[in-house]
């Protein structure tokens, strides 16, 4: 049976460069805080990874704080803003739960920023909220992701950054899905903090990073040792970080290849639409690897299970952690409530070829036609 992995937005397969770097670091061992030769070698691997990650996102290496992943990088930014006196957080309604839920439990008020039906932030609403800002709420904090994990829709981050800067605010960008798929220059984007994750770009799970600019004050999140310049205590995951660095370097090298994946995605999209699917977010700029399609009346869960039986691995909604499918808050924010339980996400990446997309299309059309025939058949 075919085995087609089109779920890179959940986790990308590990790149060979990342596996080699992580394995070498594991074999070498050592604690980066030790002053002896083995410790110094471990530190050198970690600092090489920091430079590789910094290069991917256009940030100085000295501003990259390593974390346990995208979730913790987002939390470090949000919790730092709240600790610094932000009492109201403006958060786009389509953020990943790592941002949405962290903001909700932070103790600050959360104002959701709506998106338009094309899946992009409504900048007019952002401008209005910022101009009506009550200084008693502290400095404005805005969380806007670079690209959505479900639809791939790229957000108007640079435009939002201008508004946030004029208001003296702090813009946090969750770039977990954009990194390694589109070029990122965190300074040119105007992000005050920007989060990325290793396992989305072909590195090992359990590693991530936050970069910060001069207008963001990060607080210490974990207490104990002085690692990460006192910002995050705990002996570092050197093997994971070495793999992360190698994956970041490979992803930067392969960015042109990543861009050309949109051709396969677009061909697949046209075929699915011709067969009866509805495409989501296609009128907006999107990540080149991501396709979100819905089939009214064909539950997402059933689509995913049927494709899985045919050896094709994709996701439904945003339920990548629980394994359970819930209606997508992203589609609901776009006003697509009727499709929110019937949409799947297909996402390729560095290991994908055009045949993977073709096999997915064939399997989806077979499954869809069978489902439609069953629905038409009179009950026995
Ligand atoms: N942000 C976005 C947009 C994501 O898609 C994910 C993972 O799905 C995360 C954050 C969480 O990243 P991690 O799994 O590294 O904690």
Explain this structure:
The chain is built from twelve helices and 13 strands. It has 380 residues and is of the alpha/beta class. It has two domains: 4-12 and 255-376, Aspartate Aminotransferase, domain 1; 16-252, Type I PLP-dependent aspartate aminotransferase-like (Major domain) (Aspartate Aminotransferase, domain 2, 3-Layer(aba) Sandwich). It has a seven-stranded mixed sheet, with helices on both faces. Helix 6 (157-166) links the parallel strand 5 (141-143) and strand 6 (170-174). It is globular, with a radius of gyration of 21 Å. The model is unreliable at 318-322 (pLDDT under 50). The structure holds pyridoxal-5'-phosphate. Residues 69-71, 96, 98, 145, 149, 174, 176-177, 197, 199, 208, 320 line the site of pyridoxal-5'-phosphate.
- Helical proportion, percent range: 40-55%
Which strand order do you get reading across the main beta sheet? 2-8-7-6-5-3-4
The outline comes out as: globular
Largest sheet: 7 strands, mixed
Which structural class do you get from the secondary structure elements?
alpha/beta
Number of self-contained structural domains: 2
CA gyration radius, whole angstroms: 21 Å
- Under CATH, the topology of the largest domain is which? Aspartate Aminotransferase, domain 2
Record field, number of beta strands: 13
